[in-house]
Amino acid sequence: MAAVRYLVSDLDRAVAFYTGMLGFTQAERWGSEFAAVRRDGLTLWLSGPKTSAWEPMPDGRSPEPGGWNRLAIQVANIDAEVDRLRAAGVTFRNEIVAGPGGKQILAEDGCGNVVELFENAKH
Q: Are 89 and 45 in contact (CB under 8 A)?
């Protein structure tokens, strides 16, 4: 089984975002620091600050939420999805952009992690 791990600063907030806003279901919860959520065959591990995933590296670097790598979720109507999420208070890093493959926008999960919403181009 493959999974994606996101570091989150607030587990309750992250679980609420992924289950309430993006249609994931909570599959596991281990106390106040770790949860696994699932959608369409994808398992997303949400690791709070006290999990081993946050341990500093031998060279002193410390893992943290955010960056530009991201989970991408395909949607049928990006405009409607963005309107729904904005109305619910979700923050976006940009506006919808279009390219040869379709349209995308980058949402934040409330902990600094990016989720790309992507609508395939209609050919």
A: no
